[in-house]
Structure formats: C-alpha cells, structure tokens
Amino acid sequence: MSQPHPTPQAPQVTVRGEGRLEVEPELARIAVAVSARGADRAGVLADLTRRNAQVLDLIRARGAAVSKLETGGFSVAPEPPRRGKGEARIHRGHVRITAELTDFTVLGELVPELADGEQTEVSGPWWELRPDSRVYAEARRLAVTEAVRRARAYAEALGTSLGSLLELSDAGAAEPGLYRHGGFAPAAAAFARGEAGGAPSLDLEPQPQEVTAEVVARFTMLPPAL
Q1: Which residues, in sequence order, are CB contacts of 85 under 8 Å at separation 6+?
Q2: What is the pTM for the complete model shown?
Q3: pLDDT of residue 201
C-alpha cells in the first residue's frame, strides 16, 4: 500500500527529472505561393491554373521524398481601383501550396526549380520532427531515468535507499512543435528565379531540433538512521 502522507516509518522524497535531446530534423516543410495578374479574369485564372499545375508536377515528381502535399488559399479577385485613375480593372489570382519532404538532398534540388517558375515564390524551409518520432519517447525515458537518479542520490545522502514509487506525473510533455529552439524559423524568406540554363541545387543546412520532457516523481525511502 502506498502512503499518501510521509511518516517517520515511511519518509518520502519528491524529485523532478528532465530529459533533453538535440537531434537532426526528420521533415522539412516549404510553402509555394503562385500568382497571376491581368485585365482579363479568365486569362488570370488560366495562368494561375497552369502555374499551379507546373508546381504540383515538380513536387510530385519527387515521389516518396514528399510525405505531404496540400493546396489551399486559392483566390481570384479584382484589385481595388486606384483613385482618379480610369484604367481597366485588373484581376489578381493567388494560390498557396505546402509540401513536406523527408529527403533534404531532394529538397535542395526542388526549391530552386520551384523558385525559377514565373510569378512563384518559395518560403521556408521549416524543419520539424515526425509527430510519431521515437525522439519524444526517448526524451521521456531520459526524464524518468534522471528522476530515479536524483531520488536515489538524496536517499544515499541520508544513508538509506529508495522504497517504492508512489507517483509519477508528466510536468512537461515532449510533443511535436514544443521545441525550445529551432523548428519554425525559416532558413530563407524567399528564393528568387534562377539564372538561364537551369536552377542550381541549393545547399541547405538542417536546423537541429531540441526536445525536452519533464517528470515529477515521488518515492518512499527506508527510514534513515539519523
């Protein structure tokens, strides 16, 4: 039976344990913004559709290196008329695409090719870990190990040893996106169009990810001889 309250016969020690890991990212996410502009609404829509298809084809051609591909933020609308101007109404189209890649060499080849497209802007990369990465479980394991080590050190300082574990609680979950640094800082805001003759490969340095986990553990101790 666990003792809810410490007694001289069953003293208790409560400690905090932390697990901290710095690892290489497993995923890289980029955003591609494709635009079109002109006086003819149908022409703008056609240009936007063509450019969007070109971007999707370039990304899909990377096969298994692309773990996720999503399209969102589509719009075609007239621009507000300029005051005092008698110009024809101008329409602007915009679509945003996000892609997640697991092969960073492929990423370095893909980004310049995308940025070489007409009226196309590429942002990122954002470095991440997989939601089900083993790193999170490892950080928790290290936190528990540290808690036991600390508790044992306190017990040994009193000339005794640990008895039973009474409680273990999660004080700081190691979950996706909860990094102390790294993760969501873009390595580059945008990539311009490449020179004639094809876009070169871009050398990207993955940003290390820091994952932490914290636990609070409560143990009984054998009565020390004070």
Answers
A1: none
A2: 0.75
A3: 73
